[in-house]
Design brief:
Strand order of the largest sheet: 6-11-10-7-9-8
Structural class: alpha/beta
Shape: globular
Helix content: 25-40%
């Protein structure tokens, strides 16, 4: 961010117009989006105010005299819209693959038909798209490359559309790679050398499936170390494990990708979670139980890490949370059964080849083979005719192909649905408020990010069906919901008449 801002100011002062005036930061983890948003806020309210030359150059470029607009398409800044008010104002736009990708394709989630073409234009012209942790979203990275070949800014004189893929693990791309050796950094920076050579020991444990949970507990509590990070794939099982630790009198915090915005916001100020963010270990042992939400981006550190076997590229990201600041020693424990999946055998073979050493230097010198890494999803081919269809503002989302396959691939994880609990739902239903007026009500009393819970559509359906069964016995119970579609159209539905998963997704 800082490099882009300095380059933009230099470009504006010299009249070269070679640097896009919007930086669009995309990362497929909502927790990381929040962290990047904080970095952008600090830049806007801190360093930028101290650099008068940079601030003045940016202010002169904006017709509103605003040096920099910062907007997050998730989180506390989700509804500001500062980035879209004036095309001349330099802006940092931060969001997930869904929120940014859908806007690039003229089908912005949570955007009305009026704003969709505006958002597509602003993101496709005079913009630098940075896909952070690109290995998490290979289909979106491929989409960006296809958009780049279409040259969306070619007709706008002096404007740019540029893309950068960032990743600490190998990605498949035709883009030119930025080659740099960490050995030079290790020679010039003691701090970097300490992290690069930080000792991290790996132990593999073959466990029968019926004994998995007991072994996980044994390893997580075997001895007292300052900080223990436990990765569990299922949010429900992660919650159960955290509750068991808490019941056992241990200080523990839970972190999952399906938390409401409110819980994620509380993490930043949580005393237990804060102990995983500093180089100095706490005096009393603490535990963090997490799903893959803690796998990347979040600047966590621990002295002990326990995880099940997943793909090698994901494991390397998890190992990055171990002894992250190079201030001591770290131990990692990987539980596995008899290899069943295609990637399991190559991943185990690769881990064994490291001989118990998973330091950054060792991993850099011994990267995992492609057969041990996550499979790339089947990517949808982008055709100009599809963009023409999506760009038609008269077409509702139900009348055109959903953009999901282009954002996540044809074999991506399940679609997701957001839930929000509101006390005013029964009023809107009882007063027979129509769809247009419902939209006006929600504009005046918006659903704030802290209220939202995002989960896989299948799980949402199961939970709503369970709730419908419980409420069926109470005839007075309110069984109505208001469905807000991705194009901001509204409809009333009953718990007992849920639509199919496609209608519930996104």
């Amino acid at each position: 961010m800082q490099i882009w801002l300095l380059a933009l100011a230099w470009s504006l002062l010299n009249g070269t117009k070679s640097v896009p005036r919007r930086l669009v930061w995309v990362v497929n983890r909502r927790v990381v989006v929040d962290q990047v948003s904080k970095e952008a806020d600090d830049l806007l309210n801190g360093r930028l105010q101290q650099c008068e030359d940079v601030r003045d150059a940016l202010q002169r470029a904006s017709s509103r005299g605003v040096p920099l607009a910062v907007s997050t398409l998730r989180g506390q800044r989700a509804d500001t819209g500062d980035w879209a008010r004036d095309p001349t104002t330099p802006a940092i736009v931060i969001g997930t693959v869904d929120m940014i990708g859908s806007r690039l394709l003229f089908r912005g989630y949570r955007s009305g038909s009026y704003h969709r073409p505006i958002h597509a234009g602003l993101l496709g012209v005079d913009a630098l798209i940075v896909n952070d942790e690109a290995h998490l979203s290979p289909a979106f990275a491929w989409l960006l490359e296809q958009l780049d070949t279409l040259k969306p800014a070619e007709c706008a004189r002096g404007k740019q559309f540029r893309i950068i893929l960032l990743s600490a693990t190998p990605t498949q791309s035709r883009l030119k790679a930025f080659m740099h050796s960490p050995y030079q950094d290790a020679l010039s920076s003691e701090r970097f050398r300490r992290v690069f050579d930080a000792p991290k020991a790996l132990t593999l444990h073959e466990v029968e499936s019926r004994l998995f949970e007991s072994k996980l507990w044994e390893l997580a509590t075997a001895s007292e170390v300052p900080r223990t990070l436990v990765f569990i794939e299922s949010p429900e099982k992660a919650l159960g494990f955290a509750m068991r630790l808490d019941k056992d009198g241990r200080e523990v915090k839970l972190m999952t990708g399906t938390m409401r915005g409110w819980e994620r916001d509380q993490l930043a100020s949580n005393a237990t979670f804060a102990k995983f963010l500093t180089a100095e270990p706490p005096g009393k042992p603490v535990w963090l139980v997490a799903t893959s939400a803690a796998e990347v981006g979040v600047n966590l550190t621990c002295e002990r890490l326990v995880t099940s076997l997943v793909e090698a590229d994901r494991l390397l990201q998890r190992f990055g949370r171990l002894n992250r600041f190079g201030t001591g020693e770290g131990e990692a424990h990987v539980l596995h059964g008899v290899p069943k999946r295609t990637q399991d055998a190559p991943t185990l073979q690769y881990l064994r080849s490291l001989n118990g050493d998973i330091s950054c230097r060792k991993v850099w010198e011994n990267p995992p083979p492609e057969t041990a890494c996550s499979e790339r999803p089947r990517c949808a081919r982008l055709e100009p005719r599809l963009i023409d269809v999506w760009a038609q503002t008269t077409y509702k989302d139900k009348d055109v192909p959903p953009v999901g396959p282009w954002l996540h691939g044809k074999e991506d994880a399940e679609p997701e649905t957001e839930l929000a609990w509101r006390a005013d739902v029964h009023l809107l239903i009882e007063w027979r408020v129509n769809a247009d007026l419902t939209g006006e009500v929600l504009k005046q009393h918006p659903i704030i990010p802290q209220e939202r819970l995002r989960e896989p559509t299948k799980r949402v359906r199961e939970k709503l069906e369970t709730l419908a069964t419980k409420l069926a016995e109470d005839r007075a119970a309110n069984t109505w919901l208001i469905q807000v579609n991705s194009d901001l159209t509204f409809q009333r539905i009953r718990l007992t008449d849920l639509p199919d998963d496609r209608a519930l997704s996104d």
